[in-house]
Amino acid sequence: xxxxxxxxxxxxxxxxxxxxxxxxxxxxxxxxxxxxxxxxxxxxxxxxxxxxxxxxxxxxxxxxxxxxxxxxxxxxxxxxxxxxxxxxxxxxxxxxxxxxxxxxxxxxxxxxxxxxxxxxxxxxxxxxxxxxxxxxxxxxxxxxxxxxxxxxxxxxxxxxxxxxxxxxxxxxxxxxxxxxxxxxxxxxxxxxxxxxxxxxxxxxxxxxxxxxxxxxxxxxxxxxxxxxxxxxxxxxxxxxxxxxxxxxxxxxxxxxxxxxxxxxxxxxxxxxxxxxxxxxxxxxxxxxxxxxxxxxxxxxxxxxxxxxxxxxxxxxxxxxxxxxxxxxxxxxxxxxxxxxxxxxxxxxxxxxxxxxxxxxxxxxxxxxxxxxxxxxxxxxxxxxxxxxxxxxxxxxxxxxxxxxxxxxxxxxxxxxxxxxxxxxxxxxxxxxxxxxxxxxxxxxx
Length: 445
Known about the structure:
With 445 residues, the chain is mainly β. The chain contains 5 helices and 25 strands. β15 (258-263) and β16 (266-271) form a beta hairpin.
C-alpha cells in the first residue's frame, strides 16, 4: 500500500499513529520489554526506533488474530518411560527451549525442545524415594543455571535444592543435576518459590508460610545427610480465627519487598523484613499483623492460582493473577500494592494499601448469574475502576468482563457451562495478558 498511495505512506510514517495504537492495545496485548524504551525515545523521531515500534505493534495485532486459531504443528512428545505410570508434579519452560519436569515418584528430567529436531533429554535424576509432593524452579540472573526445589510429603519433611547448568549454544550438550542443599523440617511443607537473587525460598503448610535460607551458589558439602531448616520469617494464621480452617494456603510469592500469600478465600500482603541475611534473627508474624483481603465474591474458593511477573513503577507494585474455582470458573485479578505513606520505620505499622480488581471471569457454572457474580442486562465489560483514587485497603474496586468462549465472536459469552468439566492445569503469561488452561470434560479420562 505504501508503494501505491503517497498519502497513505505519509500517514503510516507518523509516530503519533503507532503511539496511539500502542497505547490503546498495551493493556490487553503482550509486547516485548523494550517497547517501553522505544516509546520514550520516540519523542525525538528516529527512523530506526519508529520502525521498531511499528513492527512491534503490527506483530502484536497479528498474534492477537492468530491466538485463538487451531495449532497445526505437531505436538511435542516426550518419550520418557512410557511403560511406567508417572505422576507429573509440574513442568517449567525456560528461554523457549529448556523444559524441566518433576514427578511424584522421584524423577526429574531436563529436556531440550528446541524446534527443528526431536526433543532431547539432556539429564535425568532419580531421587531414590517416592512421595514427592511439590516442585518449583527459577532461572538465575546469569541465565546459566536452573535452580530447583522439591519437598517430600512423608515425615520428616525433606526439602532438596538442585541446580543444573544449561547451554546457551545451539548445540546439544549433556549436563547433570548438582545438589546444593538438603534440609529437614518437623512439619509437612510444600515448596512455593525459590529466589536465587535473594537466596531465599518460600515453603508453606496448610495455613502457615515460612521464608527460609536457600543457598544456590555453593554445592552441598556437609558430612550429614540433611541440615536443619533456617527460617528467616514465619507467618502464622490470624489468632482465634475459626474461618481460617477453611482458608488454606494455595501459593505464596516474594515480590519486591512483600510476601504475597494466596489463600483459598483471601489474599494477604506482609512486608518483608529489611534484614534477611545469614546473621538475621528469625521473625514470627501472625496473619492479623499483615494486610488481609477477602476476595470480593461470596463463596468463591480457589484451588489453584497462577501469577504474572510483577512490575514496579512510581512506587506502585502491580501484577496479575488468575484463580480457579472448581465449581464457578476462572477469575482474573489485577493487583496493585502501594506502600503506606503514613507509616514510619516501625515494621509492625508498615501495612501497605491494596487495590484488588477483578477484570475477567470465565464461568464454568450457570449459577454465577444467579449469585450476582455476573452483572445482569447486556453482557458487556463494566468500566474499570482502577484509578489511583480507588486504591484502598478496605474497599477493593471490582469490575467484571466476561471472556470470550472459543467458537463465539470476540466479546460475546455463551452460557452453557453445564456441559463443561474441570480445569486440570492453568498458566498465566509473564505479562498477565494471556492465559492457557487444560479443560477436561466430565466423561474424559
